[in-house]
């Protein structure tokens, strides 16, 4: 039986949070153009971009030069709370997990804005994988690089 739990990652952002909700929702296809060092490609398999139930296939540089595939589906959109939730349903990333949900939410603490990632994970194995890699540490690094790359793009676009 694997371990389960929740990992919350707060990444400070300087650009408006609404842009992040757009790019992870109705404009996810732009990720490969916005941050090619993190996302190689994004393809809509079923449904409409940003709609609940749409299926998306992505190729991601999870670790700087290691390309993996990921298939996901939007399961919830909450415009009032500025969040959306993806269910990861396939691809290489599921080699480590039985279940994975990713919640992306724009949050604020005082004058500081954050993109808050909540990863709900059920691991297949109690320990790290056979390579001794800590998958959660890799995911934290990935979402931080992805967020920072998108934020830099939005700030550059603004100027």
UniProtKB/TrEMBL annotation:
Which residues are in the Bet v I/Major latex protein domain?
2-157
Any single Pfam family the record assigns to this protein: Bet_v_1
Q: Which domain of life is it from?
A: Eukaryota
Q: Biological process (GO) annotations? A: defense response
What's the name of the protein? Kirola like
* Species whose genome carries this gene: Actinidia chinensis var. chinensis
| Lineage of producing organism | Eukaryota, Viridiplantae, Streptophyta, Embryophyta, Tracheophyta
